[in-house]
Inverse folding.
């Protein structure tokens, strides 16, 4: 039985609070002691640092690190979070360390896992699918459609590969058909499809790998948008779907 499940076995004197048992009588010394130890064990299980990587005086801890092992440590059966950058400072509440619970640790670990390659080497690779109706395709130059939101300060988005699927309706797109993935504020696109892809007069499904471009095409904390070069298409009535694979770069 876990420490938390033991709390369900606590006995109340007269209050009613399911699933706890109401005795309607004085508690014995043994019952009271069982209450205190059960609550202590439950709290201990929440704050325990026994399963967190032990504190190492040789490690340089860094509160801003994307490496979970450099931001948290287990010491004296507690979980500690670093404050600032330092080494060889034994965990104790104060300037360099603060004690946290497992519940407080978990969101930080999940966030760090999303932006860190970690041991698998691929945890920051992501995929996205975007369906663009024909009305939006016809204004993609003047009103680009966001494909990937800005990742936040200290990060940038690099598109690895992209595919475009179009189920042809009745009228082919015309004039401006350079479908692109462009980082907001960048001088050059990350990806550009041949005009024959968007301008096809039949259904099409094309994939393309990232193409190197001269000029800046990656920008910190900027979204990636679907757009077309030069101007809006002048005709066309088919919806399109974009599938992209990308990674978040830690700067």
């Amino acid at each position: 039985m876990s420490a938390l499940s033991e709390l369900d076995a606590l006995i109340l004197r007269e209050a009613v609070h399911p699933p706890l048992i109401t005795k309607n009588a004085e508690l014995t010394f043994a019952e009271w002691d069982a209450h205190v130890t059960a609550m202590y064990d439950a709290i201990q299980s929440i704050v325990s640092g026994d399963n967190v990587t032990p504190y190492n005086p040789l490690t340089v801890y860094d509160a801003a690190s994307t490496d979970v092992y450099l931001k948290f440590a287990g010491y004296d059966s507690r979980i500690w979070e670093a404050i600032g950058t330092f080494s060889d400072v034994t965990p104790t509440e104060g300037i360099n360390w603060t004690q946290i619970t497992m519940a407080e640790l978990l969101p930080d670990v999940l966030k760090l896992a999303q932006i860190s390659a970690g041991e698998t080497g691929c945890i920051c690779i992501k995929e996205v699918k975007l369906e663009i109706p024909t009305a939006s395709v016809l204004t993609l130059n003047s009103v680009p459609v966001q494909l990937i939101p800005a990742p936040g300060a200290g990060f940038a988005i690099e598109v690895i590969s992209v595919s475009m699927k179009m189920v042809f309706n009745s009228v082919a797109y015309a004039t401006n058909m350079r479908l692109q993935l462009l980082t907001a504020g960048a001088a050059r696109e990350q990806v550009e499809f041949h005009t024959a892809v968007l301008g096809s007069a039949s259904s099409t499904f094309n994939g393309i790998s990232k193409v190197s471009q001269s000029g800046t095409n990656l920008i910190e904390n900027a979204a990636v948008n679907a757009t077309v070069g030069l101007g809006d298409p002048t005709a066309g009535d088919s919806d399109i779907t974009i599938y992209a694979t990308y990674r978040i770069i830690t700067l």
In short: The first strand starts at residue 11 and ends at 12. Residues 115-123 have pLDDT under 50 and may be disordered.
